[in-house]
Amino acid sequence: MARILYGKEFAARIKASAEHGAIALRAHGVNPCLAVIIVGNDPASEVYVRNKEKACAELGIRSNHIPLPAETTREELLACIDELNADEEVHGILVQLPLPAPLSESSEEVLSRIDPRKDVDGFHPVSVGHLFLGTPGLRPCTPAGCIRMLEYAGIRMEGAHAVIIGRSNIVGKPMAMLLLERHATVTLCHSRTENLAAITREADILVAAVGQPHFVTADMVKPGATVIDVGINRIAPKKLVGDVDFEAVEKVAGAITPVPGGVGLLTVAMLMENVVQAAKAQTEAKGE
Ligand code: NDP
């Protein structure tokens, strides 16, 4: 049976590191602060935002919750971001996605309006550029959290063959860059990949970020592989499952993350770490 990589254990370590950083900043009179803009009232987004606020409260990070009505215009949202960009007391800005229509058409423009120094989601083109170049910058929380978990769990990345299913800008692509930075040999798969199972069976580390319940079956996994399930799929009002057929794959894999209780917890913890990192970098830049 595989080792279960519970998100709680690793998230606690990431949060402890963030808390440590927040304490050091407060000792210098800087109170790290995250502003979260949520437009409309999508129930799933409200849950995510509440989780982020809870994590902030837990670590003594200030959170500034900005709920905007679903009818908010593009200009109003951009003006709100401009105000937060100019506010020196705000260190991180997050716009909860997805934005409601028709604002969703402006998502890229909205994310690009955030000051890259405050881009704690790591989605700004400048942050993406830093990730690509391997230069310091804020990294997207979900893949960065997965890397931290692999490090803490002592799972070898250097020289390992890492296969990622999914090439989105928020999970698949940044995960590939981060694994490459850790010297893994990376294969990125997607909906047009041929012979997917033959490729995934070669993986020492298999990351599933597809968005389809039970997509990864036991026959797709090499015995002893580490399987990271990023997927969150709601299959009933109160039932969440990942992209991996957990019960079957657990019998083959060497290590596996559960859903719920896996990667989702790492994402929020990593967001806290990014807020602290952003506050630190902004403070240092001011020469405080
Ligand atoms: P996207 O829908 O943006 O991307 C899904 C990817 O899966 C695409 O690249 C797509 O390929 C690929 N794909 C779809 N079908 C197949 C197939 N049959 N074979 C191979 N590849 C396929 O999703 P996200 O990356 O945003 O999210 C993925 C999952 O992770 C979702 O369940 C989401 O809810 C979850 N998630 C979880 C987070 C967490 O904190 N745990 C955070 C973010 C996301 P193509 O590009 O060719 O269309």
TrEMBL record:
A Pfam family hit: THF_DHG_CYH
Molecular function (Gene Ontology), one example: methylenetetrahydrofolate dehydrogenase (NADP+) activity
EC number(s) stated in the UniProt entry for this protein: 1.5.1.5, 3.5.4.9
Chain residues that bind NADP(+): 166-168, 232
Alphabetical UniProt keywords: Amino-acid biosynthesis, Histidine biosynthesis, Hydrolase, Methionine biosynthesis, Multifunctional enzyme, NADP, One-carbon metabolism, Oxidoreductase, Purine biosynthesis
Subunit structure: Homodimer.
Family: Belongs to the tetrahydrofolate dehydrogenase/cyclohydrolase family.
Cited PANTHER family: C-1-TETRAHYDROFOLATE SYNTHASE, CYTOPLASMIC, C-1-TETRAHYDROFOLATE SYNTHASE, CYTOPLASMIC-RELATED
NCBIfam families from the UniProt entry: PRK14186.1
Chain's role: Catalyzes the oxidation of 5,10-methylenetetrahydrofolate to 5,10-methenyltetrahydrofolate and then the hydrolysis of 5,10-methenyltetrahydrofolate to 10-formyltetrahydrofolate.
UniProt-recorded name of the protein: Bifunctional protein FolD
Source organism: Centipeda periodontii DSM 2778
